[in-house]
Write a structure and sequence with these properties.
homodimer, 277 residues, alpha/beta, Cobalt-precorrin-4 Transmethylase, domain 1, Methyltransferase, Cobalt-precorrin-4 Transmethylase, Domain 2, 5-stranded parallel β-sheet, 5-stranded mixed β-sheet, 10 strands, globular
Chain lengths: 277, 277
């Protein structure tokens, strides 16, 4: 496999890297380089174990995510840790699930590095709302159904449903809405969307552990979203999608097809409708 | 560099692959594998030349994008071509700029493969609205400024401004709006956003050829967006961003910093405001 020319990973610098949604095959070449050269890897809970195994054996691995029950390191502590490791002359890999700039707090950590005058590079990753959904056969956009898509975090930094947003406008804006980390406040999200004008019968899906070995998907409606999610015991991390993109999965679930699912070439029944006149 | 375990690229199958926004370092490991093994590569105009050089020398390379002046292949022709190449027993790599499911028409091509019973895999790529903007120091989301982001195509399949969208709702919904391929209808987009309630003095940026050697960025306001874009002779492909994320570039432009730009650790003046207040 021929590799492209890549920039050097300098000692004393930090690379803020997105690891993508789970499948190590979705790591970028730059992420793989960083894993193979880093002296220290500071990683989040959303980083897949198969990905961490690609770090060089001599690297220090530090966990900086939330783990059930235990208090998680605070953001300023993580930033200070990155600065300290870089000042020790290490190549520091800060590895985050998905993309560092999509609900990943990468900007905050980068600004702490700027304040400390530590050189850094941002290495984007595939965000779960695009790449994770693709592993469930749900396209973030599709010509026939949506010319816009909105990504929304299911909880803000205080753990509450975001309150700085105009929910009626969000509900009516993009035909497809993708929520990250939305299980905790699912009932509130459903209520706000329906109050904002979304049809309760609209298609919705929940994708848990997207693009990992534990991926599970349920498809339902906005009205039944909470009950069906609970009945299926869906676990975090989970993406919630509302909109017609969900119906495309019966045609685009390529991963399911590899396990025997028969795909429908006309999932929106457009041809059927055209032929009917 | 240790590689993760990857699935086989079977003869007679098509991999629909996103090549990311430009920098070949943002190719995924799966994309790199596909390039090194494909018998035929059918690629778009937005795929970087440095990326195509990674294809194996024996591969057939076919261009399937728009090129100034010349008529571009129609979508059904491209789909038929993919089916024919696969039926010849080739490993077919359909390579698209960005991500195949983000304004990339990947879903349409995949459904044509389903209809023809050609096995396929979707390989997500880094979409320009996230990864391309990151190369200009503009985060798609940032804790202090936006809990939602909307991606919108600047023109629909007929080449017009999308008319199926509720523009006033889009304008008031997410604090950060990212437009793909927006140069053609920039004045209409500006007018609709201001009519929908966006402040004309709000920050806006245009990033042309993001994450390539030809990347250029201008920052301006919504009011002056059209004039400043024309004065700077910004070329397609270009991303247009509206919202407070733009102001973060003075702190997060890591690529600029590598060329000597001095970054501001407090680009939103939050600390300054807190200290004053």
């Amino acid at each position: 496999m021929q590799l492209p020319l890549l920039p050097p990973f300098e000692p004393g610098s930090v690379w803020l890297v997105g690891a993508g949604p789970g499948d190590p095959g979705l790591l970028t070449v730059l992420a793989l380089k960083a894993l193979s050269e880093a002296d220290a890897v500071v990683y989040d809970a959303l980083v897949d174990e198969r990905t961490l195994k690609l770090a060089r054996p001599e690297a220090i691995l530090e966990f900086a995510g939330k783990r059930g029950g235990k208090p998680s390191p605070k953001q300023p502590d993580i930033s200070r840790r990155l600065v300290r490791l870089a000042r020790e002359g290490k190549r520091v890999l800060r590895l985050k699930g998905g993309d560092p700039f999509v609900f990943g707090r990468g900007g905050e950590e980068a600004l702490a590095l700027v304040a400390a005058k530590v050189p850094f590079r941002i290495v984007p990753g595939i965000t779960a709302g695009v790449g994770g959904l693709a592993y469930a056969g749900i396209p973030a956009t599709h010509r026939d159904v949506n010319e816009a898509v909105t990504f929304i975090t299911g909880h803000n930094v205080s753990g509450e449903v975001p309150d700085n947003l105009d929910w009626p406008a969000l509900a009516r804006g993009a035909p497809v809405l993708v929520f990250y980390m939305a299980l905790k406040h699912l009932a509130q999200i459903r209520d706000r969307l329906i109050a904002g004008g979304r049809d309760a019968s609209e298609a919705a899906a929940v994708v848990s552990h997207a693009a990992t070995d534990r991926q599970r998907t349920i498809t339902t409606t906005l009205a039944r979203l909470v009950e069906d999610t609970e009945a299926a015991k869906m676990e975090p991390p989970a993406l919630v999608v509302v909109g017609p993109a969900v119906r495309l999965a019966s045609g685009l679930d390529w991963l399911g097809a590899m396990k025997g699912r028969v795909l429908d070439p006309d999932p929106l029944k457009l041809k059927a409708r055209r032929e009917a006149g």
